[in-house]
């Protein structure tokens, strides 16, 4: 590993002069600075992260705030985390992962120290109690998710309302007249989690617009719950032929449950979902789905944050348009 002393020897200057050239804390001649920079390039020297932080008054660390509350599907959350970490490394930043459900207190604890330069906040609620603090902090932040009132904040997310609408529009286009949404676990709705609420809004709006009979069913993320909700749906809506799933762990169990109850997918029942593509493709009957773009959302959130750290103006709101991929789980309705 090339050290600062190696650069100094190569450039014919003292190590302190190399340090001054890097930090700008003391003036040095233009000729000396250029000679030091040439040696740094030729030797491939990379300043230690701590030294860079001292020179720039930054920690070179981002906080990723993901409270692991009940009802959260951890594998999908980790896809966001991997994307954030990977993109942050391209900008020479590390990531501090905060998973405790501390709300405003947890944010303040980190903000009151020099631990991080900026924050990415997830699991956003419509009436999120963290908003006043985020608006008042002297550190930049980006939310992956949209609260009800996003003024003064930088937010990015999939357009979940449009995603719910797109799933229903596809079913309506195939002639289905009775549809149901199997949604997130009940506690997710009780908390007012923004993305879940917006899927319901989009699902309901599109069903009403197309004159469909519809219902919404929050559901625990467990195989036994899939059987119970399938039985309930067929009992309450015997003419049901279209289902939208917004609950990743239930996707395969629901296909199995409906088939155990005598409904073939897609012959008797068409299923669409909002989930990562790789999950939709892995089900025994590959599911028509709106992709959950975890990699793009995580990466673009970091890019927005880095631009804010550099003093650049960024858009307040970034909504990614949903993309639906047709697979084997949907077909035209078998008319009686």
β-sheet strand percentage: 15-25%
Separate helix tally: 14
Largest sheet: 6 strands, parallel
Q: Using the alpha-carbon principal axes, give the shape.
A: elongated
How helix-rich are the residues, as a percent range?
40-55%
Distance between the termini: 75 Å
Per DSSP E runs of 2 or more residues, the count of β-strands stands at 12
Oligomer: single chain
Low-confidence stretches: 52-56
Instruction: Compute the average pLDDT.
Output: 90
Radius of gyration based on Cα positions: 25 Å
Order of helices and strands: HHHHEHEHEHEEHEHHEHEHEHEHEE
Structural class: alpha/beta
Query: Could you give the order of strands across the largest sheet?
Result: 2-1-3-4-5-11
How do the helices and strands line up, and which of them pair or pack?
Blueprint: H1 4-11, H2 15-23, H3 30-43, H4 49-56, E1 61-65, H5 74-90, E2 94-98, H6 104-111, E3 118-121, H7 131-136, E4 141-144, E5 155-158, H8 160-173, E6 178-183, H9 186-190, H10 194-209, E7 213-218, H11 223-236, E8 242-245, H12 251-260, E9 270-275, H13 277-282, E10 288-291, H14 294-309, E11 317-320, E12 324-325
Parallel strand pairs: 1-2, 1-3, 3-4, 4-5, 5-11, 6-7, 6-8, 8-9, 9-10
Antiparallel strand pairs: 10-12
Helix pairs in contact: 1-2, 1-3, 5-14, 8-10, 11-12
């Amino acid at each position: 590993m090339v050290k600062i002393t190696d650069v100094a020897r190569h450039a014919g200057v003292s190590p302190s002069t190399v340090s001054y050239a890097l930090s700008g804390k003391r003036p040095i001649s233009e000729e000396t600075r250029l000679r030091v920079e040439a040696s740094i390039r030729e030797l491939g020297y990379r300043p230690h992260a701590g030294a860079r932080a001292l020179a720039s008054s930054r920690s070179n660390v981002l906080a990723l705030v993901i409270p692991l509350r009940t009802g959260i599907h951890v594998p999908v959350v980790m896809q966001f985390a991997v994307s954030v970490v990977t993109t942050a490394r391209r900008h020479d930043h590390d990531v501090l992962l905060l998973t405790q459900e501390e709300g405003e207190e947890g944010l303040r604890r980190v903000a009151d120290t020099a631990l991080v330069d900026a924050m990415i906040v997830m699991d956003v609620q419509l009436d999120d109690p963290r908003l006043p603090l985020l608006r008042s902090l002297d550190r930049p932040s980006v939310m992956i998710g949209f609260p009800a009132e996003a003024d003064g904040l930088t937010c990015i997310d999939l357009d979940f309302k449009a995603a719910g609408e797109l799933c229903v529009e596809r079913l309506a286009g195939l002639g289905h007249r009775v549809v149901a949404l199997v949604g997130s676990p009940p506690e997710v709705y009780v908390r007012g989690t923004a993305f879940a609420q917006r899927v319901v809004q989009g699902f309901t709006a599109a069903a009403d617009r197309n004159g469909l009979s519809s219902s919404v069913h929050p559901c625990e993320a467990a195989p036994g719950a899939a059987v119970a909700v399938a039985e309930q749906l067929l009992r309450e809506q015997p003419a049901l032929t279209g289902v939208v799933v917004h609950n990743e762990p239930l996707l395969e169990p629901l296909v199995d449950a409906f088939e155990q109850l005598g409904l073939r997918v897609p012959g008797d029942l068409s299923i669409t979902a909002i989930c990562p593509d790789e999950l939709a493709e892995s089900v025994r009957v590959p599911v028509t789905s709106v992709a959950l773009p975890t990699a793009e959302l995580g990466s673009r959130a970091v890019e927005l944050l880095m631009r804010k750290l550099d003093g650049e103006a960024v858009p307040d709101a970034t909504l990614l348009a949903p993309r639906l991929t047709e697979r084997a789980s949907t077909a035209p309705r078998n008319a009686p």
